[in-house]
From TrEMBL:
Keywords on record: ATP-binding, Cytoplasm, DNA damage, DNA repair, DNA replication, DNA-binding, Nucleotide-binding, SOS response
Name of the protein in question: DNA replication and repair protein RecF
Pfam families according to UniProt: SMC_N
Domain annotation RecF/RecN/SMC N-terminal: ranges: 2-363
Subcellular location as annotated: Cytoplasm
Length: 387
């Protein structure tokens, strides 16, 4: 798929910008801080309704503005769709499809598919678990947009259950009404949490072979790259029942039962701490390189290769999910080439060059590999022009 016309209003540093993107390779060139990433970030937002750089929407609004608008014309096979998202501070975001009446922004999830490579990806390997959970969840929602609802529901359940736990924290005896309310939240957390965990595991099983192959390709097969889902049941299991628990081959119902059992067996610990100790909000994806975990052990180059391998795997999974011509994801390479050594740079360029649309940002043309020299744009503050 590709986006032809991108229009931004009050988004980041742009009061108004209109960019005519081409299918194939588009390269945005400009010095630091002129707004190159802001452009590709807006396309990522159309895909995920989230930025790859910030976890809340406020910084996306042009400083002082109350709303921002991203509009893109999407071409997917022979289909052409105009998508518009309005980002407002403090209110629910709205979307419009083909200029029809506004709908919940969530309705457009899954329509635009992107795989974005950025320096921030190093956090996938080195950062805290939230980065890896976000990676799995975004891919899950892109493949099965209905799971956006599961994710939102789960976040709400954890928030409300935590508020309840906090309010009764440290109490030695609960009233029967408190006990019943807590039990109702236990069930909701386990039901919704198990669905989210099963979804993440399904995604992991899809990406795993591609990730291993991509790592071997980028790093000359020096070490084997593995990824294992690490559940909170392992992190927080009762000391008496501590064992390695692999959830991969379990059904959603079986995972739900395990979660409920763990919650019930650890009631006093949760009441002591006042937080929900079990569920996908505390899970992680353990990345392993050869004999050691990648986090804390991998070199800078290995860390880059692992992060790139995860993104390339997502690209392949999208290809399998919708193999129709013209449906592959838009690839975005934000400022990555200057960071890579020559071998990784050329391998990555070679792999992505065939995608239907590729957006590359770089400070100088020399940072862009030969294979990716396509349609050039010059970016200056507030402006993007054909070069
Ligand atoms: N909400 C906002 N309102 C106004 N300006 C903003 C907003 N958010 C970011 N900016 C400005 O946008 C600029 C950064 O843009 P961007 O990150 O796209 O730069 P870039 O061209 O990708 O730079 P680099 O090459 O350094 O990565 C900064 O000057 C920043 O002050």
């Amino acid at each position: 798929m590709y986006i032809s016309q991108l229009s931004l209003t009050s988004f980041r540093s742009y009061a108004q910008a209109d960019v005519h993107l081409a299918p194939g390779i588009n390269v945005l060139i400009g010095p630091n801080g002129v707004g190159k990433t802001n452009i590709v970030e807006s396309i990522g937002y159309l895909a995920n309704l989230a930025s790859h750089r910030v976890s809340n929407d406020a910084p996306l609004l042009n400083f002082g503005a109350e709303r921002a608008l991203i509009r893109g014309t999407l071409h997917r096979g022979s289909q052409r769709t105009t998508l518009e998202v309005e980002i407002t501070s403090g209110k629910l975001n709205r979307a419009r499809i083909n200029r029809a009446n506004p709908v919940r922004a969530r309705e457009i999830l899954g329509m635009v598919r992107t795989v974005l490579f950025a320096p921030e990806d190093l956090a996938l390997v080195k950062g805290d678990p939230s980065h890896r959970r976000k990676f799995l969840d975004e891919l899950l929602v892109a493949l099965r947009p209905i799971e956006a609802g599961t994710k939102n529901d789960y976040e709400r359940i954890v928030k409300q259950r935590n508020a309840l736990l906090k309010s009764i924290r440290g109490k030695s005896k609960l009233t029967s009404s408190q006990e019943n309310t807590l039990k109702a939240w236990d069930l909701q957390l386990a039901t919704c949490g198990a669905r989210l965990i099963r979804g993440r595991l399904d995604v992991l099983m899809l990406i795993r072979p591609y990730m291993q192959a991509a790592y071997a390709d980028l790093a000359d097969g020096a070490k084997d790259a593995k990824a294992i889902y690490r559940s909170s049941l392992e992190n927080e299991a009762d000391e008496n029942s501590l064992e390695t628990i692999s959830l991969e081959n379990l059904s959603q119902e079986e995972i739900q039962d395990l979660l409920l059992d763990a919650i019930e067996a650890n009631r006093s610990r949760e009441l002591d701490r006042g937080v929900s100790l079990f569920g996908p909000h505390r899970d992680d994806l353990t990345l392993i390189l050869g004999p050691t975990p990648a986090k804390g052990y991998a070199s800078h180059g290995e860390t880059w290769s692992f992060a790139l391998a995860l993104r390339l795997a997502a690209y392949r999974v999208f290809g399998d999910d919708d193999p129709r011509p013209g449906s592959g994801p838009i690839l975005i390479l934000d400022d990555v080439f200057a960071e890579l050594d020559a071998t990784r740079r050329d391998r990555l360029a070679h792999i992505v060059a065939g995608a239907e649309q590729v957006l590359v940002t770089a400070a100088v043309v020399e940072d862009v590999p030969e294979a990716l020299k396509g349609h050039f744009f010059q970016v200056s503050p507030g402006q993007v022009v054909d070069a």
